[in-house]
Amino acid sequence: MANTEGAKKIIADISNHDLDQWVRTDSFSPQLEESVRGHIHQELTTFVFFRKLAADCARSNIALHGFARLWERSAAECLADFHWLEKYLVSRGGRSKPTAIEPPGVEWPADPVEPVEPCREALFVERRLLEDLQRLCSLAEKSGDAALCDTIHNHFMHKEVKHVKDLADMLQQVVRVSKQPGLGIYLMDQELRRTNGSIPWGSANDTHIENNSFSRITECQES
Ligand SMILES: [Fe+2]
Ligand SMILES: [Fe+2]
């Protein structure tokens, strides 16, 4: 009988508790939670931005289908990051609170087809994602939340640094071929069509790949 009463008391105790608060660590402060939601919001806003570029490039007036695939990939990555971070937020005892998404102000010029301005905007949008992650990371460090720091480093930082560099290279090439209107942009688009929207020089900007080849070189030198 006493055991039954004891079990009932424990069940009542736990039922009255906010279990999210038990999942949370003290270091995961309300301010930190709000900042994670801020990044989730930014990923969604960026998703809409890249979708807009993809839809513009697919128009018959523009018909840059290689570029369209690149922006589709960029949008898909933002959506995946949004989804991943939302799950992470909940796994830390946080709550999702979606807010309104601002419409993108970008429009790919069609007459004439002019890629420089939208490519510059794409670079800045991607860089803003990286800057927001860095802000989030310093806040996590200040709060002593090692788990969040670790997540940002492992899941986001390396690839976002690379994406910014990839898009800066893209902007430079777009500017180069735009100095003389005509064939250049067609050839760039053809290259992107061939890779199905992957950045053709992406592996050149991957520092992990670079490290591997460097260790292979040193291995050869040692043997
Ligand atoms: Fe992202
Ligand atoms: Fe990215």
Automatic annotation (TrEMBL):
<dbReference type="GO" id="GO:0008199">
    <property type="term" value="F:ferric iron binding"/>
</dbReference>
<dbReference type="InterPro" id="IPR009078">
    <property type="entry name" value="Ferritin-like_SF"/>
</dbReference>
<dbReference type="InterPro" id="IPR001519">
    <property type="entry name" value="Ferritin"/>
</dbReference>
<dbReference type="GO" id="GO:0006879">
    <property type="term" value="P:intracellular iron ion homeostasis"/>
</dbReference>
<comment type="function">
    <text>Stores iron in a soluble, non-toxic, readily available form. Important for iron homeostasis. Iron is taken up in the ferrous form and deposited as ferric hydroxides after oxidation.</text>
</comment>
<dbReference type="InterPro" id="IPR009040">
    <property type="entry name" value="Ferritin-like_diiron"/>
</dbReference>
<feature type="domain" description="Ferritin-like diiron">
    <location>
        <begin position="26"/>
        <end position="178"/>
    </location>
</feature>
<dbReference type="GO" id="GO:0005737">
    <property type="term" value="C:cytoplasm"/>
</dbReference>
<dbReference type="InterPro" id="IPR008331">
    <property type="entry name" value="Ferritin_DPS_dom"/>
</dbReference>
<keyword id="KW-0479">Metal-binding</keyword>
<feature type="binding site">
    <location>
        <position position="43"/>
    </location>
    <ligand>
        <name>Fe cation</name>
    </ligand>
</feature>
<dbReference type="InterPro" id="IPR012347">
    <property type="entry name" value="Ferritin-like"/>
</dbReference>
<comment type="similarity">
    <text>Belongs to the ferritin family.</text>
</comment>
<keyword id="KW-0409">Iron storage</keyword>
<dbReference type="GO" id="GO:0008198">
    <property type="term" value="F:ferrous iron binding"/>
</dbReference>
<keyword id="KW-0408">Iron</keyword>
<feature type="binding site">
    <location>
        <position position="126"/>
    </location>
    <ligand>
        <name>Fe cation</name>
    </ligand>
</feature>
<dbReference type="Pfam" id="PF00210">
    <property type="entry name" value="Ferritin"/>
</dbReference>
<protein>
    <recommendedName>
        <fullName>Ferritin</fullName>
        <ecNumber>1.16.3.1</ecNumber>
    </recommendedName>
</protein>
<keyword id="KW-0560">Oxidoreductase</keyword>
<dbReference type="GO" id="GO:0006826">
    <property type="term" value="P:iron ion transport"/>
</dbReference>
<dbReference type="GO" id="GO:0004322">
    <property type="term" value="F:ferroxidase activity"/>
</dbReference>
